[in-house]
């Protein structure tokens, strides 16, 4: 089921975490932050919305890093029901796609719940004080990649955050597959 993210709750503080990465390290919020901010992305391996934009995501995170905005990706789906999202497959995808950011496994789903993540991809853009400034889409892509010349919503918003500490007032929600929660 496709879902949209809620509107940005400006100023909401980032939530700390301690999660294993595909690189073998345990990562915390402080380990991930950049001097001008942090982009927290909830993604997974199997979602067609993520697959459609993964190359753009890698491009944009590499460019944002040069502006002092670091990125981290978190996978919170139930890997028992969705084996494509297993930790071993996360390692494979991170290597194949050339992730320059940590790819973390939220096996308990507690971090995704604390962030109130709803779909993949779900983007949370924070300023240098780790206050939320962006909760929108990457670009106009959906299950298929949009034209190459579309506005880069997330990139432009996070560039603004790096330069001013504030995100744009108007943001278009991200859309994607629902997070695959464990049965209660």
From TrEMBL:
Residues 8-160 form the Thioredoxin domain. Pfam families: AhpC-TSA (PF00578). PROSITE patterns: THIOREDOXIN_2. One of its GO terms (molecular function) is antioxidant activity. Residues 164-184 are annotated as: Disordered. This is Alkyl hydroperoxide reductase. It comes from Methylophaga thiooxydans. The lineage of its organism: Bacteria, Pseudomonadati, Pseudomonadota, Gammaproteobacteria, Thiotrichales.
